Amino acid sequence: MRASRILTTALVLLASAPSFVWAQGGGEEGGGSLYDINTGLSAWTLGVFAILVFVLGKYAWGPILEAVESREKGIQSALDEAAQRNAEAAKLLEEHKAQLADARRQASELIAEGRTAGEGVRKDIEEKARSEGQAIIERARVEIERERDAALEMLRKESVDLAIAAASRLLQENLDQPKDRALVERYLSGLGDGGGAQA
């Protein structure tokens, strides 16, 4: 506010200086040429110009320069901050890429471990199935042998009974069953051993 009043006063003085010089004696000659030098007017013009420069330097250029410098500092600060953030972003991007690569590596390792574990489980299952199959086959073989032996024993008994019955009919007499049975069983076991008939 004060600066604008001083500036207005300086402009009024500058504008009134030529009329003041003209009133002092510059108009006696009936006007001068365009190229005539009027020292009074020049002195007033220089004085007003000096006052104007002083006022502008004190009240206008200082704040303007301060505002420009402040703005320049703000812009530079913003640029520095942007560069710093850009560097931080680049650093974070590199860290992210490293973490991503590490995660991919770990995933590959987990997949490989899973495959290895799956292969081990498959082999264990196959081995267990093979063992159980062999056990089932062995039990079946033992059962078949036992059934065969039981069938052979039953066949021998029936054969003995049939032989005794046939011999009884042939001889038309009642033989001693336990004694004859022992005789026939010895005979049949001799056949089973390949030793031939025994009396």
Report on the structure:
This protein is 88% helix and 0% strand. It has three helices and no strands. The protein has a domain at 148-193. It is mainly α and 199 residues long. The chain has helices at 2-26, 39-171, 177-193.
Core attributes:
mainly alpha, 199 residues, 3 helices
Topology overview:
Layout: H1 2-26, H2 39-171, H3 177-193
**Proportion of helical residues:** over 70%
Q: Biggest β-sheet: count, sense, barrel?
A: none
The H-and-E topology, N to C, reads as HHH
Shape descriptor: rod-shaped
**Average pLDDT, all residues:** 79
| Number of separate helices | 3
Q: What is the radius of gyration?
A: 67 Å
Briefly, what is this?
The chain is mainly alpha-helical and 199 residues long. 88% of the residues lie in helices and 0% in strands. The C terminus is likely disordered.
